[in-house]
Amino acid sequence: MKSYLKANRQRIERELADSRHWPEFSPAIYAQYRVMLPLAQRYARGRLIDLGCGTMPYRAALLAQVTAYDGLDLFPRSREVRYISDLEQMSVVPDETYDTALLIEVLEHVPHPWLALSETWRVLAKDGLLIVSVPHLSRLHDEPHDYYRYTRYGLRRLLEDAGFEVIELVKKGGVFSFLGHQLSTLVLTLCWGVPGLRWVVFFLNRWLVTRLCFGLDGWLDRGGLAPLGYVAVARKR
């Protein structure tokens, strides 16, 4: 059963990676697109580097507004990756090369995040912008390389210690999005291998789990006491 679920999850990611349906796979992913992506679209400019880029899921949405979109990853999963490097020591990237950097759901997997932020500061040009998102509520994933969960205070402290000025810092989702993500993942991976049924379940999940849970977080946790995570925009001082 475990191998069946893993295979189906990988299949979902392949089939929906460039689809307009992917953001509604679960409330956690929906929260990421509803909160992080508008901030990235507002601030991203010039030459952009996507650090720990994975499959570059935001490249298509941002490509038109930047002059270059380069990826860096330790284990590249896309042909578009320019640099293969550890985030804690990015000597392959010259100083002050980029105007914008993305660090999207990466810092929890970095053993020494302060080193990664210091290197990010180095490769950004004067007044360069960093857009970073981190989890606060999350199950263990990508083990054993899953090291941290962040509060808004911890994230701000790390950014300021690395030489950044925080421009915006906002929560994304909450406890309902966290729980809904587990439910969406389980139900959709169970059903994805059944032709016809998978899309019926997907569209039911869209309204009864994804949008409902995201809406409940906005309504019941206005103070942000149980955030799913945070998104910050910071400028190189």
How would you sum up this structure, described in words?
The chain has helices at 2-16, 27-43, 59-62, 113-123, 152-161, 175-191, 197-220, and strands spanning 47-51, 68-73, 81-84, 98-104, 124-135, 164-174, 227-236. The longest helix is centred in the last third of the chain and has 24 residues, at 197-220. A seven-stranded mixed sheet has the order 3-2-1-4-5-7-6, with helices on both faces. It is globular, with a radius of gyration of 18 Å. The chain has 237 residues and is of the alpha/beta class. Helix 1 packs across helix 6 (175-191) and helix 6 (175-191) packs antiparallel against helix 7. The protein has one domain (2-236): Vaccinia Virus protein VP39 (Rossmann fold, 3-Layer(aba) Sandwich). The protein has seven helices and seven strands.
Write a brief structural summary.
Helices cover 41% and strands 23% of the residues. It is an alpha/beta fold and 237 residues long. Strands 3-2-1-4-5-7-6 form a seven-stranded mixed beta sheet, with helices on both faces.
